Amino acid sequence: MTGSTSTGADRNWGVRGLVVRYGHQVALRGVDLEVPAGSVTAIVGADGAGKSSLLRALAGSVRAEAGEIRRPDRLHLGYVATDRGVYRDLTVAENLSFAGESYGLRGAGLEARIAATLVRIGLAGAEGRLAARLSGGMRQKLALAMSLLHDPTLLVLDEPTTGIDPLSRVEMWELISEIAAAGTAVALSTTYFDEAERAAHVLVLADGRRLAAGTPDEIVSAMPGSIWVADRPLDGRSWRSGSSWRTWTERDGGDAGRVVAGAHRVEPDLEDALVVAELAAAARSGSPDALSPVPAAVFTRIGPEEPPMGRDGAMIAIRGVGQRFGPLQALEGVDLDVRPGEVVGLIGANGAGKTTLIRIALGLLRPTSGHAELFGEAPSRQSRARVGYMSQGLGLYDDLTVGENLAFVTRGFGERRAAELEPELEAVRDRLVGELPLGLRRRAAFAATLSHRPDLLVLDEPTSGVGALARARLWELIRSAAEGGAGVLVTTHHMGEASQCDRLVVLLAGRVAARGTAEEIADDLVSIEVIAKPWVQPFQALRAAGFPVALAGGRIRIPGGDATAVRGALDSAGLQAELRQSAATFEEAFVLLARRAAPATAG
To answer: N or C: which end of the chain has fewer CB within 10 A?
Structure first.
């Protein structure tokens, strides 16, 4: 293994032919990565794909078995690991002082840098707060600030947005984009595919190997074959997308479209390309179970033939619910329905009241005002027995097999029959859960959630941390359960999954800010796209002018922006750029709604 470090003059960072091994386990197998200065490079993949091993090797915190590593010396490198490195029993200022001194900064110079960094990341005024009392998003910002104090030429961020809400993710990306615009080379890992679309360069990993690499557009363009949409699977490799199916056929011709009436070919996006890359890899490895859609017959009947419902046919019926904890008004005037056969998405920033609302719906918390019904009556132990709940932590025992976990859950609900499994889970019934990849563990948790034949499913971040194909397969399970008659209430931080839901309820500052489909919520909202080469100066000018700029590769997007005001800011800076107006994405619509609700939150 060869390596090189420098003061940052050459600014040519990356790895070539990298091999990392932990005992007998090979984590990376001959991986290449280039991290150019002044841009963001994203490493994408499921948990266990090798993302952290790659970044740890690049940062020098793990020894590589073979390959070349090019990185700056320690005083020009910034690194934020998945455990963040924030000391919770220290204040914000104390954390920053500790980090600064470890880089050799002292005295007035350090104090000046801390003050400037706090303003830069939006934590000015929070210097005296214990890190333990910060929100998840604020702790992420603090970890980022600690890595920036010494002005690194290479910044390595291991999943900097994992576990934080969509608004905090957007704010983190605004900071990361600003850092890249200042000339820093940024390498980060993520499981969010919409984040990969914002990066200038993307490396996709699976099982320690490269699946794809290039700009997002290059990865999509290199996808073989074509994508077709229909109301059921076609001949080829299919996966669920909302109420329809997407099918990849390796043929570029039109034969696939004649398999089912109404099928039509669509232009692929980055997530399509990543799913196809995983399907192609599975085909090469001879793993047929991973290629086939989940058989719907496994979930054709969840509960009793005609389960009793509320007066309006709702499984969950929440009316005018308010919840106060001392002086804090956590919820106010909230209505929510979940009916048989539908998937309702509950979207909101951390602290918006999602968990409180779910606890009220299940009868684990009595509301201060309003009322909640579960299957037409006040929630009780009896009615909760008809609910299947899947937590983000999965609730499985790693030292039990898949079959033993399912038997434990089933018997806890008084069921004696063996749980019915899809083929890929049946093949690992006798394996310990702790030995399975995350995608299979989540599918096992879903099977456990279904094991007592519930009528209602409540799913908390069910696809967190899995790859593109595993995410698609999990949504097949969710949609199949709904088609079998179950009602589904799901929370997610993946804004791209909003289109998988029949309806969305956006909860902000304890109130319902919007409801409807993703398209309905974003319908009247627009974004301004700024196209300029290079993008750096327009980005800096617009951010300095106070616009909420977001970077998408080499393009700048301003949700809810006014074209005249944007043009004026660019003219004032003496810059030329092309402006285009386009429909806002659901994520952009959510951010606009969240920022409008911010004054209410502050009060």
So the answer is: C
